[in-house]
């Protein structure tokens, strides 16, 4: 390797490191990071803990809903993004209403299980249709919107792989939980569900990171639009200047 080769290699390595850092930051933002995981797990953990101790459906449900609302209030007070906390509140609220209506504590988990199943199918179906869901989710985060569909085939392929991974992982999780819903009691189902909250999620996020870290860089359509606008303004300014000289002449 010559002395001229090394700086090029260093620049390539730096570019690859930057791409990985951008990917990590985007995934962290899109999926909520550590705090988002805590907000996802805590209500269900509180529900199953209280129900395991005293078998009181109403107390367990109210406690789970209350802690979800507290998490939203904390984010509002800190002026932080609330989308993950709000999604948790809605999920818990559906579970509480459903369990209260049927009187079956296991039904607290059923809306979330159905949502997981539907989401897993959505990842598979959208990928088969040529618009992988993970690309729709992460495209705006990477400032590329839908440019990956027609202008960046390598990135579209990475999104397809990641979407298939999410779909398979979520459906595999459902294949474990639904039999337990029918055969196990509430506490057994609840503890298994809590145990399966984080590991499958981390596996899917890690696979997404692996696929996207190896993919071509995203096309920043916002930067392109800004550059086009500046060029248009510059052209208009030049035209005005020319017209002004003609008038003086």
Automatic annotation (TrEMBL):
The reply on keyword Transmembrane is yes
Q: Which domain of life is it from?
A: Bacteria
Q: Which InterPro entries does the UniProt entry name for this protein?
A: UCP010219
The UniProt entry, under Pfam families, shows: DUF3159
* This protein's UniProt keywords: Membrane, Transmembrane, Transmembrane helix
Which residue ranges run through the membrane? 57-78, 85-101, 121-142, 163-183, 189-212
Record-given protein name: Membrane protein
Taxonomy of the source species: Bacteria, Bacillati, Actinomycetota, Actinomycetes, Kitasatosporales
């Amino acid at each position: 390797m010559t002395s001229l080769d090394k700086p090029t290699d260093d620049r390539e390595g730096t570019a690859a490191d930057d791409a990985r850092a951008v990917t990590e930051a985007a995934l962290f933002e899109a999926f909520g990071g550590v705090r988002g995981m805590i907000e996802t797990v805590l209500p269900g953990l509180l529900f199953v803990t209280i129900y395991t101790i005293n078998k009181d459906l109403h107390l367990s449900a109210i406690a789970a809903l209350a802690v979800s609302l507290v998490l939203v209030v904390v984010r509002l007070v800190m002026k932080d993004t609330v989308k993950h906390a709000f999604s948790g509140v809605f999920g818990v609220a559906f579970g509480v209403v459903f369990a209260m209506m049927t009187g079956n504590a296991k039904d607290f988990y059923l809306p979330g299980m159905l949502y997981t199943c539907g989401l897993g199918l959505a990842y598979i179906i959208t990928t088969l249709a040529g618009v992988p869901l993970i690309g729709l989710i992460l495209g705006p985060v990477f400032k590329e919107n839908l440019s990956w569909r027609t202008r960046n085939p390598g990135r579209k392929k990475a999104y397809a792989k990641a979407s298939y991974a999410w779909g398979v992982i979520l459906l595999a999780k459902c294949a474990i939980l639904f039999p337990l819903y029918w055969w196990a009691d509430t506490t057994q189902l609840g503890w298994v569900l809590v145990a399966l909250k984080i590991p499958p999620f981390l596996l899917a996020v890690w696979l997404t990171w692996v696929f996207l870290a190896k993919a071509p860089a995203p096309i920043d359509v916002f930067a392109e639009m800004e550059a086009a606008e500046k060029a248009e303004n510059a052209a208009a300014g030049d035209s005005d200047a020319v017209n002004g000289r003609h008038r003086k002449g």
